[in-house]
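Look over this today:
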Amino acid sequence: MPESRRRYPYVQLDVFTDRALEGNQLAVFTDARGLSSEEMQALARETNLSETTFILPREPEVERERGVHVRIFTVAEELEFAGHPTLGTAYYLHRLSGSELIELELKVGKIPVRFTNPDGRTIGEMRQRDPEFGQVHAVDDVAAALGMPREMFDDSLPIQTVSTGMAFVITPLRSLAAIRNLNFNWAKAAAYLAKTDGKFFYLVTRETESPDARLHARMIFYNGEDPATGSAAGCCTGWAVKHGVVGSDELAVIEQGIEMKRPSYIRIRATKSGDRVDNVRVGGCVVEVMRGELLL
């Protein structure tokens, strides 16, 4: 091997699951110092996962004050925030350090992730930014954008944009049949979203497969379908607590990824006081499945 080649270790994790080969895949480059932004983006295309993260270690006193510096990339862009990369990267650092509290410095700021073992499993829970509630969307407009009949939508709940760092249009559907039989066209959906305050649709229904889940979800974007979307789950948590789907500080579960045979289970809760919703927490399990080394 030529000495001039650079070596970068990485791990691959399955997030929001306690079983290998389920949940949402994440590649974590554990020491990305020396990689340019262009190389990080190229590596995210190489892994071809929903997201890839890059840890940039700093002096311990800097990390204690500001958190561990992490950058998040999809195959197409760098993100300010994303949920399963935050949880998965924090899990790696938790296993490395043994610390119950891991704080990451992302582009949206410092995100804390706390790890506990309530039932013999290691569960991480991130505190996301307080939700910002945006546009309420007309059902007819969204139905046209998604190529779905109007009767497939749950009229008892609003279609609304919510952001805890990334803006999702939370879109309630009537049933599992409705959410399974999608004719989703990303180009049409993106054209609609470009005229709104939302970046992606997060489709949910109160009918679930698991009796332990409160909501069943799907998220389809420019790289296909996402098995678990922690950032959207945080937005959905704020929306669900605001509109009475989940009680204040009640622990609930979103199931996602079932249609693509990568079942994921996302634990959610938030606090409601009057009209205000805050203290959004999103968590779950993580499994390490691979280790390797990149050669450049």
About this structure: The chain has two domains: 7-126+285-295, 132-282. The CA atoms of residues 60 and 221 lie 37 Å apart.
